[in-house]
Amino acid sequence: MAHNLHNTLKEFDSGTGKGKFYSLPELGKALNVKIDRLPVSIRVVLESVLRNYDEKKISEEHIKQLANWKPTATRVDEIPFVVSRVVLQDFTGVPLLADIAAMRGVAKRSGKNPKAIEPLVPVDLVVDHSVQIDYYRQSDALDLNMKLEFQRNNERYQFMKWGMQAFDTFKVVPPGVGIVHQVNLEYLARGVHKKTENGETIYYPDTLVGTDSHTTMINGIGVVGWGVGGIEAEAGMLGQPVYFLTPDVVGVELKGKLREGVTATDLVLTITEMLRKEKVVGKFVEFFGEGTASLTLPDRATIGNMAPEYGATMGFFPVDEKTIGYFKGTGRTDAEISALENYLKAQQLFGIPKAGQIDYTKVVTLDLATVAPSLAGPKRPQDRIEITHVKSTFADLMSKPVNENGFAKKAADLDAEYKTADGVKLKNGDILIAAITSCTNTSNPSVLLAAGLLAKKAVEAGLTVQPHIKTSLAPGSRIVTEYLTKTGLLPYLSKLGFELAAYGCTTCIGNAGDLTPELNEAITKNDVVAAAVLSGNRNFEARIHPNIRANFLASPPLVVAYAIAGTITRDLMTEPVGKGKGGKDIYLGDIWPTSEEVNALLKFALDADAFRTNYAHLTQKGDLWSKIEGEEGQVYDWPKSTYIAEPPFFGEQFSMTPSDVIPEIKGARALGVFGDSVTTDHISPAGSIKEDSPAGKWLKANGVQKADFNSYGSRRGNHDVMMRGTFANVRIKNLMIPAKADGTRVEGGLTIHQPSGEQLPIYDAAMKYIADDTPTMIFAGEEYGTGSSRDWAAKGTQLLGVKAVVARSFERIHRSNLVGMGVLPLQFKGTDSVQSLGITGEETYDIEGLGEDIKPQQELTLVIHGKDGNTQRVPVLLRIDTPIEVDYYKHGGILPFVLRSLLAA
């Protein structure tokens, strides 16, 4: 290490003895820079850059550039950010573990020590994405769902057990404990870390990246961290800095306080809508002001959680007395808490900044008193609707065209009634799924207690939920059940059908389980626009359930209220929620809990002893997890499995040196031409696997029955399944497929193979192109790749033979993941687009300007050869944004780059 830079290593009292830290105030003096004017989030990143200075990956120039951050500047410098730890959820964690296991295989074949491949920072994998809501509305639903989960995922869990014994720094939080982000808040986050270096104890902040885009929930307790693809997380685990462009920092000043009856969910939906309009994509957002200081920690975490929905890299809240109170209430040790407080005070990082104290790129102000009860939907989390307008908005959308977010139905269809084979009456707008789920809210006691109180009042008033509505309660951790039980509220939720069904990320990620066959048949036969209400953070098309087209995000108490109403077409502000005892009309105001009622119960939610007891026993002798037996040894031997397979990203003939010349792209064909807002849900396989899909056919050919298909997410460790499901979403619209007679677009993962003109599943066409040695490209509009940080959206794209994606704009994580898999992201310039250039997918394409030497964000030329013989030459921007990404691309991706680096060491 090349320290001490400017003698910034100083001493402080940790509360239990003397410790050392790399002092930002001292750095400011040495460089004559006003460090205290920098946003707090930038200062935390600067500390990591300073502490990890080694004159190789991190230079003195990197430190000076970041220390001299200015509110407004052209952002061209990249920051090499070394994180303290990495957090994984199981859907992205399993393929990441498979990649590292494959690297060990390469090391062994190369005659190197397999232990050279080892996570260099602590890695925690929380198994929370694998449980599905198969059983519901019965008292043993949790037990039955977990048994099914273990039965379906036995091979995956055996693989995780192998990883735990093979890697020294890899730990697993088993199924049934909670959602990754809530476990991270309550248990994994340390606030401040310490390590011994040259005989001295060095303290430094808790920082991380995670393989779930909602990793930003941890920003609520002052931890710098965000979601990355598994590809980037892998590099971070193996000692590579996470590289990103120096960000703008938008300050959000919160003023005033929330009105009576307004929840944290309403606040976060308002902030999401507001910041989407401010275009904060790729920026840090930092909250300050008196309104921010007044928010509880769970409310801050709820706002941080939704950063991907408002587009920011982070939604950061500095540490203050309330953070310290949360650490105490969740059972952290006195030594940890005093070290955190004393460290941050020594660094002059403690407290919520007041107006005027920090230089932000821009300041946005929100008066909390203006926030109103809201839902968001029916297709995107940023489309907020005040509760008074939900009924009218849905009525308008019924007849609006699809390109205006509508459902393209006749207005008269709103009142049409259909009957299922088992006698259920069904109308457009009827709610068929009502779920209290997802990390956004289930970490927040105020809204969960509010849901329980509303359920109590509803039951006492005689209200019920219709039996065909799929209701479920999936708390973020076992602590939630504990305080709902202590307050006597759990039985009332159960009586309305909200039985405890799982501890995990369920409905929000498409693990809602299926509807009844009768409901599915009636929906598809009559093209019914059915609805779901969930306390989640994502509601993209086909995400919640393939047959439910209108999905609304709402606070937990509103989920319960709408479940009782049974339809989204009732105005809950003016019409009764339902009829109670004696046929009496019951209104929302009759059952909505007051803030005093909620606050009176909050003391049950922060019980330090309960937290310590809960997390002291993640697993117990004789439970389902302890019975799983994993393989032994340092190198995995890849037993035959349809869940886990050796990834093909390295190959048997892996070379220690990459090619000198970047291959040209000539004579390429379009695999797909898409419009705006194509999400990673559209690209990456997610949810259930259809029997007649390429993936379904492959599973059946390999002896797997339909009942055992499980989900795409659970099979992310097998590339044969995942590549067949890439671009196979039932709602994706490939503009190469001719429109229907009524002008609407055909949905599903189809394309036109050229030059044959044959209509095929995208996977089948891709295999034909690969067999013919024909490169392929994807064309798209704005915001390509929004949504969860799904590494398989990039991995699947690469395995289908796609060499470049040309779009109007890219989502941050997906763009970097494409580079990480050796796929070129290219951006149209100016007003150029698929439409303005007349691209139909019948042309052939070349990319000019590639060679030995490419530079970040240089201009390349897209050459379009039309069927009529005409040629267009179009400038496009190379969205390889940083010098390190150039290196990744030259190596064929980040995984070969890292592997070569480790084996050469």
Automatic annotation (TrEMBL):
Origin superkingdom: Bacteria
Aminoacyl-tRNA synthetase among keywords: no
Biological processes annotated in GO: tricarboxylic acid cycle
UniProt keyword Iron, yes or no: yes
Keyword line: 4Fe-4S, Iron, Iron-sulfur, Lyase, Metal-binding, RNA-binding, Tricarboxylic acid cycle
Pfam families: Aconitase, Aconitase_C
Cofactor(s) needed: [4Fe-4S] cluster
Ranges where the Aconitase/3-isopropylmalate dehydratase large subunit alpha/beta/alpha domain occurs: 72-566
Metabolic or biological pathway, per its Swiss-Prot or TrEMBL entry: Carbohydrate metabolism; tricarboxylic acid cycle; isocitrate from oxaloacetate: step 2/2; Organic acid metabolism; propanoate degradation
SUPFAM superfamilies assigned: Aconitase iron-sulfur domain (SSF53732), LeuD/IlvD-like (SSF52016)
Domain called Aconitase A/isopropylmalate dehydratase small subunit swivel: residue spans: 697-829
GO function terms (MF aspect): 2-methylisocitrate dehydratase activity; 4 iron, 4 sulfur cluster binding; aconitate hydratase activity; metal ion binding; RNA binding
InterPro entries for this protein: AcnA_IRP_Swivel, Acnase/IPM_dHydase_lsu_aba_1/3, Acoase/IPM_deHydtase_lsu_aba, Aconitase/3IPM_dehydase_swvl, Aconitase/IRP2, Aconitase_4Fe-4S_BS, Aconitase_4Fe-4S_dom, AconitaseA/IPMdHydase_ssu_swvl
Family assignment from sequence similarity: Belongs to the aconitase/IPM isomerase family.
Matching NCBIfam families: aconitase_1, PRK09277.1, PRK12881.1
Subunit and partners: Monomer.
Function according to Swiss-Prot or TrEMBL: Catalyzes the isomerization of citrate to isocitrate via cis-aconitate.
Protein name per Swiss-Prot or TrEMBL: Aconitate hydratase
Protein source organism: Trinickia dinghuensis
Lineage: Bacteria, Pseudomonadati, Pseudomonadota, Betaproteobacteria, Burkholderiales
